[in-house]
């Protein structure tokens, strides 16, 4: 399901709303393991959420991220194997994927000794297969899986490529059993252009980093609200342990 929640980013008060009523009476688990997997986007999200979640008794936040990596190059960092090993080691209740900013170079298939350029059928086929394997490893370990889509980017050509990659990721992730959380709408203005700052009632606050790719710390919290909202909506049994995410 597409979960574009741009209004959450444009609202000035809370970031994580819409928790289902059933979650209010559900028992709070003693421990909730959250495993973050992905590149520098996921790493920034993990680092920004860590101070908030570590003050809570239930969540245990686990860093499985690595910057400058991607799905296309298993010879550099095999995300399929890494997901399998980390999920087995930590037994997460929730696995969060956010990756792809480095995936516009050729995709290498070592066992076939082939390379597939971005935009080709071979690239799409093998990329989707790897996304499927990553999600499957997470869900087979018992975790619920959430896949965050890539955000809008400042450079127009880059943004266009991101939309293509999002389509591949979404189809494969959802087919494998993950919940897809759209970030494109939340990072675009009314005309679909890159949105560097969020207009608030009394001011405008920057939430994208200067590189036009990443986010400020506050911006990551805003994206984190989309994650928490989706997890609470689709996995109500996890909502009591996650709680609500706000800017505080």
Question: Which key phrases capture this entry?
Answer:
five-stranded parallel beta sheet, alpha/beta, 248 residues, globular, 7 helices
Can you describe what's shown?
With 248 residues, this protein is an alpha/beta fold. It contains 7 helices and 9 strands; from the N terminus they run H-E-H-E-H-E-E-E-H-E-H-E-E-E-H-H. Strand 6 (144-148), helix 5 and strand 7 (179-181) form a beta-alpha-beta unit. The protein is globular, with a radius of gyration of 17 Å.
Rg over CA atoms, rounded to whole Å, is: 17 Å
Task: Give a quick account of the main beta sheet: strands, pairing sense, barrel closure.
Answer: 5 strands, parallel
> How would you classify the quaternary structure?
single chain
Give me the strand/helix succession: HEHEHEEEHEHEEEHH
Low-confidence parts, pLDDT < 50 over ≥5 residues?
1-25
Shape: globular
Strand order of the largest sheet: 2-1-3-6-7
- Tally the helices: 7
List the helices and strands and how they pair.
Layout: H1 6-10, E1 32-38, H2 40-53, E2 59-65, H3 79-90, E3 94-98, E4 107-109, E5 114-116, H4 121-140, E6 144-148, H5 156-175, E7 179-181, E8 197-199, E9 204-206, H6 217-234, H7 239-242
Parallel strand pairs: 1-2, 1-3, 3-6, 6-7
Antiparallel strand pairs: 4-5, 8-9
Short account of what is shown:
The protein has 248 residues and is an alpha/beta fold.
């Amino acid at each position: 399901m597409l979960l574009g929640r741009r209004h959450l980013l444009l609202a000035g008060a809370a970031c994580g709303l819409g928790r289902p009523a059933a979650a209010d009476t559900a028992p709070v688990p003693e421990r909730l393991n959250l495993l973050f997997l992905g590149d520098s986007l996921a790493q920034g999200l993990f680092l920004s959420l860590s101070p908030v979640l570590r003050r809570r008794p239930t969540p245990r936040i686990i860093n499985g991220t690595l910057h400058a990596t991607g799905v296309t190059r298993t010879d550099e960092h095999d995300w399929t194997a890494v997901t399998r090993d980390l999920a087995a080691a930590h037994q997460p209740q929730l696995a969060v994927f956010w990756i792809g900013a480095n995936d516009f170079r050729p995709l290498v298939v070592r066992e076939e000794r082939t390379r597939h350029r971005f935009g080709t059928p071979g690239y799409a086929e093998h990329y989707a297969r790897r996304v499927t394997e990553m999600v499957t490893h997470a869900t087979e370990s018992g975790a619920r899986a959430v896949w965050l889509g890539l955000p809008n980017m400042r450079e127009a050509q880059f943004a266009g490529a991101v939309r293509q990659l999002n389509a591949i990721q979404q189809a494969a992730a959802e087919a494998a059993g993950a919940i897809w959380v759209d970030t494109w709408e939340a990072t675009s203005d009314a005309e679909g252009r890159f949105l560097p700052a969020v207009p608030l009632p009394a001011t405008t606050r920057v939430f994208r980093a200067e590189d036009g790719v990443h986010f400020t710390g506050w911006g990551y919290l805003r994206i984190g609200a989309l994650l928490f909202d989706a997890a609470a909506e689709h996995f109500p049994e996890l909502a009591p342990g996650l709680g609500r995410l706000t800017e505080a």
